[in-house]
Amino acid sequence: MTSTPAALPPLSPARAEEFGAALDRIRAEVVATRGDEDARYIRTVIAVQRGLEAGGRLALAVSLLPPAWCAGTAMLTVAKTLENMELGHNILHGQWDWMGDPAIHSTTWEFDFLTPADAWKHTHNHLHHTYTNVVGRDRDLGYTILRMSPEQPWHPVHLLQPLYAALLAPVFEWGIALYDLEADAVTDGRKSVRAFLGEVAHLARKAVRQCAKDYVLFPLLAGPSALPCLLGNVTANGLRNVWAHTVIFCGHFPGDVRTFTEEEIEDESRAQWYLRQVQGSADFEGGLLLRVLSGNLGHQIEHHLFPDLPSNRYAEIAPRVRRLCEKYGVPYATGPLWRQYASMWGRVLRHAVPWDLRR
Questions:
Q1: pLDDT tens for each residue of 173-211
Q2: Is the pLDDT of residue 3 over 60?
Q3: Cα distances (angstroms) measured from residue 321 to each of 11, 166, 272
Q4: Per DSSP, what are the bridge partners of residue 285?
Q5: What is the DSSP string of 202-255?
Q6: What DSSP line would sit under 48-92, residue for residue?
Q7: First to last CA, the chain
Q8: Model confidence at 358, in pLDDT bands (50, 70, 90)?
Q9: Per-residue exposure over 119-128, b if at least 16 CB sit within 10 Å of its own CB, e if not
Q10: How many CA atoms are closer than 13 Å to the CA of 247, on its beta-carbon side?
């Protein structure tokens, strides 16, 4: 049984090391030139995000007026998107720790999302980024409910995965929160029931705070506009979830993204890890606005190569990474967002059945 898609002949050890050394040089250049411009960028995004959230909350406070509801919901949606994608995700990767600012640091940031930051950093930063697309090791490969590779065992429930993949999008933060609990680790004996219950309690406290803020406090403060304010908050969270689902799935599951077996990563060198990150991720193309709203994760390949580099640098280094891949014959998956989105759904449909639809 082969990975999806079929693996190309590997680079020779010497060529692989050359490839890895070239990527190390790109990383070193970015690290050496981080400075005031990067700091201004992230502080500007934070200021814009907070301004949009304040404006959205104020508009929803008088959202009995339809124009105010539309404006407030739109501003709050963008604010929540920026907070999750360009701020929370990237700050928790330690991309801005070099600034030494305790307010913009991976150890202190708690993002506007149901999952507690420490749980996210374990399942995402450690497990996913270390074992990207390794069947049996990367739990983000289908999030334990989707079959995205022929190496994953097929079960009849997978016939329904196109349906529940679509239903997951508007409630994505809830799906991720439950996924981050790693309930399967309890049944497999890798986590104690006591530890699991502690994590459930931790998640419950965060969820109560999040729900109380969006669905109780701000609607009550809106007085006569309580119901439209509540609806605006529900809509903003739902749209943010759909967008996050789109960006993440398009960066990991288009049809030309490879999966790997555990045997393939035995004794894996740093250069081979780089090769797996490139082949296990996909970019999508777009302008500045799309880049910022996606947390610069349209450059998912660059993010997986260098997860702790400032996100605003990914667009700068992407052409160099692509040329390097062309030089060494390493596949570099990229394309318009719509095409990557369609390809991702093709993969969901293809692996919903127990046979290979491409044969």
A1: 999 999 888 888 888 888 899 999 999 999 999 999 999
A2: no
A3: 17, 33, 15
A4: 336
A5: HHHHHHHHHHHIIIIIHHHHTGGGHHHHHHHHHHHHHHHHHHHHHHHHHHH-ST
A6: HHHHHHHHHHHHHHTTTSHHHHHHHHHHHHHHHHHIIIIIIHHHH
A7: 13
A8: low
A9: bbbebbbebb
A10: 26
* Predicted local distance difference test score (pLDDT) of residue 357: 58
Structure tokens at 191: 């986590």
**Total residues belonging to the chain:** 359
Say yes or no to pLDDT of 5 above 60. Answer: no
**CB neighbour class for 358 (10 Å; exposed up to 12, middle 13-18, buried from 19):** exposed
Which residue in this structure is represented by tokens 């420490």? 118
Indicate left, alpha or beta for 329 from its phi (over 0: left) and psi (-120 to 50: alpha): left
d(CA 299, CA 334): 9
CB-based burial label for 154 (10 Å; 0-12, 13-18, 19+): middle
Tokens standing for residue 187:
């049944």
User: Is the separation of the CB atoms in 333 and 281 below 8 Å?
Assistant: yes
pLDDT band at residue 1 under the 50/70/90 scheme: very low
Q: What is the pTM of this model?
A: 0.94
Q: Pull the structure tokens for residue 75.
A: 């501003």
Q: Delimit the domains of the chain by residue range.
A: 13-350
Buried residues in 256-294 as b, exposed as e (16+ CB within 10 A):
bbbbbbeebbeeeeebbbbbbbbbbbbbbeeeeeebbbb
Cα(337)–Cα(343) distance, rounded to whole angstroms? 10
Average pLDDT over residues 220-225: 97
